[in-house]
Amino acid sequence: TNDRLQESLALIRKAEQLDPLSAIIKQNIAGSYSIMGRYDEAEAAYKQMLAANPEFSSGMVNMGWYFYGLDKGRLDEAVILTRAAHRIDPGKITSLVTEYSLWLSLGDYQRAQVVYQQMEALDAGHRWLPAAKAWSNMLQGRYAAAKEEGLFLSHNFNSLAPQGHAFRILARSGAYEQAREVLLKVEPRYFDPEKWPDVLNEGTADACIAGLTLLRAGDEQSGRDLLRYSANYWEQTAPLYIQHADSYPSFECHAYLGEVEKSLDALEISLQHQHVLRDWLGIASNPELRMIQEHPRFVAMDEKARAELKRQRDHLGQLEAEASL
After folding, report:
1. What pLDDT score does 2 carry?
2. Bigger pLDDT: 14 or 285?
3. pTM above 0.90, yes or no
4. Contact status, residue 230 vs residue 207, Cβ threshold 8 Å
5. Helix (H, G, I), strand (E, B) or coil at 271
6. pLDDT of 166-213, one tens digit each?
7. Which residues contact 159 (CB under 8 A, 6 or more apart)?
8. Taking the alpha carbons of 5, 161, 30, 19 in that order, is the dihedral positive or negative?
9. Beta-carbon contacts of residue 156 (< 8 Å; ≥ 6 apart)
10. For position 3, what pLDDT does the model report?
């Protein structure tokens, strides 16, 4: 609710008074504004964070991936930040993982592979490597290979983050039975309708893929109910207390319910604000979204999104040519 978000921001502001130099606290302030959809304030807070802490590499990565990448669709600026973060702290793999993912989002698989080789040289056994390979495989239509990486993650890394990636990878690659097993470990509240408000209030964006997993793995009614509940929540409840609630993927829930026009309506708004640009190539290649991909409205959106991705790739290419990246 709005009260919960405002209370959380007030508490972080109090913490800032006690420790005004803390980079982590400033990052949390920026993140809170971002969650609330107050992007101008979020960007100002991130810039204040970096002005006060210019060597704060993890803050650069966070700003790049979540704010410039997800919230604003400024992937080129996100790459610039993550490159700077890696120069500051070349021993951390997170900046490389983020840059790799951004190049995938931009559709430049060759540059992504160069970064992957850097990741492998730094830590060949790191948990992010199989996830990185899986997302690249999916974007290029290699779903069987992606599934194998998802299974490897689920069997070999027990902490929450890699298990969450394993769920999403398995579901996106069509392995719904295995995805359901992992989801039961990662977020069992999706299996209890009374807990759905709690999950969505926490800002999760996985409800549509969770609903589709339930639907495809035998819990058809529960899956449909979760898809319907999530779409309604993001379109009717969330806008009451956050700006830019269209950053949540209600279009996906509508599509899985077969509601093509509602899905396209929601997607057009989200693309207009560039919230879905980071994930566009995945949306355009997702076989579960064929019912909207073949529609003329989607074709027009696809042309617009790919043109913007090309513009951003060209911008980065120009910076590289000038040795400014």
Report:
1. 56
2. 285
3. yes
4. yes
5. helix
6. 999 999 999 999 999 999 999 999 999 999 999 998 888 999 999 999
7. 127
8. positive
9. none
10. 64
pLDDT (average), residues 262-279: 97
Place of tokens 């600026």: 77
Burial of 227-266, coded b for 16+ CB within 10 Å and e otherwise, reads bebbbebbbebbeebbebbbbbbbbbbbbbbebbebbbbb
Burial class (CB in 10 A: 0-12, 13-18, 19+), 170: buried
Q: Could you tell me if residue 7 is left (phi over 0), alpha (psi between -120 and 50 degrees) or otherwise beta? A: alpha
Alpha helices by DSSP H, listed for 173-288, are 176-186, 196-201, 207-216, 220-232, 250-256, 260-272, 280-285
Look up residue 215 and give its two tokens: 């639907």
Evaluate if residue 1 carries a pLDDT over 60.
no
Q: How many angstroms separate the CA atoms of 207 and 167, rounded?
A: 12
Tokens 């513009």 correspond to what residue? 311
Q: Are 99 and 78 in contact (CB under 8 A)?
A: no
Phi-psi region of 242 (alpha: psi -120 to 50; beta: other; left: phi over 0): beta
DSSP state of 288: G
Question: Mapping DSSP to helix (H, G, I), strand (E, B) and coil, where does residue 52 land?
Answer: helix
- Mean pLDDT over 62-87 rounds to 96
* pLDDT tens-digit map of 11-65: 888 888 888 878 999 999 999 999 899 999 999 999 999 999 999 999 999 999 9
Which tokens go with 116?
């992957």
Cβ distance 103 to 96 under 8 Å?
Answer: no
* Cβ partners under 8 Å of residue 36, min gap 6: 5, 9, 241, 242, 243
C-alpha 60/C-alpha 44 separation (Å) is 14
Average pLDDT for 77-90? 96
Distance of CA 55 to the CA centre of its chain: 25
Q: How far apart are CA 290 and CA 302, in angstroms?
A: 13
First and final CA of the chain: distance in angstroms?
41
Q: Which two tokens stand for residue 30?
A: 């920026």
- Rounded Cα distance between 82 and 71, Å, is 16
